[in-house]
Amino acid sequence: MVTQRNRCVAILAICAMAVAYADIKVVCGKGSIKITWKISAELVPHASRLFLGNCMASQLTVLPSGEGAAQFNYHYTDCKFKRVTKGKHLIYRNELTFRPHQKSKPATFVYPIECVYKRPVGWVPSFLNPGSGISEGRGGLEFHMALLNDQLTGVAKTNVIPLGSFMPIWAAVEQRSHQPLLLLIEECVAATTQELQPSSQVYPIIGNKGCLLESTKGRSLFLPRYHSSSIVLYLQSFKFGLGEEVYIHCKLVAWDPEVLAESKKACHYIMENERWELLDDPSQSSICSCCSSTCLSRSKRGVELEPHSFTLNSVLGPLIIMDSTHPNAHNASEISVTGADSQEAQSSQIETP
Fold first, then answer.
1. Which residues form the signal peptide (predicted)?
2. 234 within some domain
3. Core-most of 201, 260, 261, 344, by most CB within 10 Å?
């Protein structure tokens, strides 16, 4: 009995060594994946212990050489694939494993699988769609601002951010009784105080009527919109206020989506092209050319003729940006991050230019 058990252990050990040198080919398709895992002859009898996530091979072919080819043909809705949003891309992740033992024991071989796609224009995570009902008339507006997690699927669970990583800042306006509105961030600064005072030290992020100034220094940008009434500022963390509580102060503007101008826009700098680009219509990026100088407001007469526009000064924080090399980096306390209160957004802070 003991001899038989030792023999099984020896066979599994040989299989584990053989699988480590396996030939794996991955083809990422549209909504599905095809994997061919070529295995040694020693591993063929144990092919039922090969998994993609929680899925067994969909087909096993024994080759004339005695080796095997395990095929995994599955959709991303199968096998416990994880979908991650990162910048402009959707990423599907999983693992190929060899599990010679029961599920409670770890796999002896793990091979990461990742398929990366450009994020579809119409793909909308439920969290980021703030509501898009269209109706006539005027009514109260609710503004929101929040720090999102890395996957852009919900509010971040920590306010401690490593230096150089990204802070996805989401802002939205609910337009229950309005024609469709375009949400813009006209101004944004970082400060170490929750309230801005004349003596406050500030770090400019967005200025010049919607120009993302920070995009000229690093990789910050506006992400493609999920809906006109929401916007995601993909902000790379900076050294200002390092290790202290930092608050992000922004002026949010709900605007007519049909009217873009130098004074109402969302522009970021594309370093590869060495030019400013308009988020909502790159073909009109000439609107952003003033970002390198001064973008002028409309004349008084023009303001009087503008369609309905509403603004809100919103504060997000506190955030704590930490340098991992800092001696106190692991001692930062995590607390909740709050943005504009929806009740506040319907009160005196809403202004009509």
1. 1-22
2. yes
3. 260
Other beta carbons within 10 angstroms of residue 344's beta carbon come to 15
Highest mean pLDDT out of 159-168, 299-308, 324-333: 159-168
Which helix (H) or strand (E) is 211 found in, with range?
A: strand 211-212
CA distances from 106 to 8, 10, 110, 118 (A): 18, 18, 10, 34
The domain of 112 spans 2-118
Which residues, listed in sequence order, are joined to residue 91 by a DSSP beta bridge?
Answer: 84, 116
In tens, the pLDDT along 150-181 reads 888 888 888 999 999 999 999 988 766 567 78
Helix (H) or strand (E) holding 301: helix 300-305
Same domain, 130 and 114: no
Distances (CA, A) of 110 to 10, 22, 37, 96, 270: 20, 11, 13, 6, 38
- Tell me if 33 is assigned to some domain: yes
∠107-49-91 over CA atoms, to 5°? 65
**Cis bond upstream, residue 318 (ω within 30):** yes
Q: Which residues partner with 206 through β-bridges?
A: 188, 212
State whether 335 and 195 are in the same domain: yes
Nearest to 347 by CA among 318, 304, 313: 313
Residue 235 in domain: yes
Residue 151 CB contacts under 8 Å (≥ 6 apart), including other chains: 84, 85, 86
CA-based R_g, the chain, Å: 27
The percent of residues in the chain predicted with pLDDT above 90, rounded, is 44
Where residue 177 sits, what CATH number does that domain have?
Answer: 2.60.40.4100
CATH of the domain at 83: 2.60.40.3210
Output DSSP code: residue 298. Answer: P
Q: What are phi and psi of 206, to 5 degrees?
A: -125, 135
